[in-house]
Amino acid sequence: MSEELELHDLLAVRRDKLKQLEEQGIDAFGHKFERTHTSTSMAEEFDRFSKEELGEKEAPAILAGRIMTKRGKGKSWFCSYSRSNGTNSNLR
Fold first, then answer.
1. Residues 91/81, Cβ–Cβ less than 8 Å
2. pTM of the predicted structure, to 2 decimals
């Protein structure tokens, strides 16, 4: 019975937090977006270019995944991200 009570308390706290976010006008679940690339399609599209050629290109891309690590170095930004299918990629 105490586990049921703990679960009930936990759900009550979560509902209160959700209500507070909604009162602030924050969508707790975000919004849907359409991705333009997968990491595989980006590799297929851009691997043929040299570093210099890539530097001259303007190629915006929208990817879906969870950023696991990120770090900046000068004008560059590096990140590792994981997708829902369990694959990981490194972007720079």
1. yes
2. 0.46
